[in-house]
Amino acid sequence: MSETEAASGRAAGTGPLMDGRICVVTGASSGIGQATSIALARLGATVVLVCRDRGRGESAMAQVSAAATGESPVLELADLSSLEQVRDLAGRLSGLPKIDVLVNNAGLVIYHRELTVDGFEHTFALNHLAPFLLTNLLRPKLTASAPARVVTVASTAHRGARLNLDDLQLEHHYSAMLAYSGSKLANILFTRELARRLEGTRVTANCLHPGTVRTRFGQTGSVWLRIGLMIGGPFLRSPESGARTVVYLASSPDVGDSSGGYYVSGKRREPSRAATNDETAARLWEISAKLTGLS
Question: Does the annotation count 180 as an active-site position?
């Protein structure tokens, strides 16, 4: 089943693809996250929207509710740049009856180097450490819910990344795109190692490049990035288009047993050489576990 067929909502001769499934989507207040939430709700899933801002979250939830063909969506508030809030969120989500799909979508790019409340470089903390910690804290629930899926939104920007494991916080040299591309490379390496660790559990882990999408992404970047995105806006993909591969990986029977993959436009593709380095993936996991206090 293609990503377009998955997005259409029904397999041949069946009801909605995601009837009875519970899907958690981070960064769900706008852009790809909101479009993904709407699409999954339309497929019959109960969607848990994880948002930072209550007002924007409630607005997104209203749109998801209007599209839902199953149970009403749920709103969870959390600033995922805070490890304490990630832990609190994981505790609440662990109280769900099950989690069939976890979509790690929240992300950003920041022009100037900023530190989170935990003292980590903001882009690395939100784009990598947050999904790393949240996914690991939810692993018992995902395993108990199996078959289950973890879908992480990466980017083709990883191809230009240089990931220095001795300077993941970019203390010695910072640029917005260096931070962003490195975090997206980390997403793919995390997915690769996670898939290895999940072998035999019937929980899969895949990641994807959604395309360059017209979203709020980039508003915290440089003036030139914001201007470029504004000028190029008419030529960029819509959030709905960018969400298609996310929805495909979350719902299609065709990838139910596939794990550890990097997908573009619904097709499994080979990422950069750096993204396939198992030794780097294992080392990044160990470092991330120490930084997040994961036992």
Answer: yes
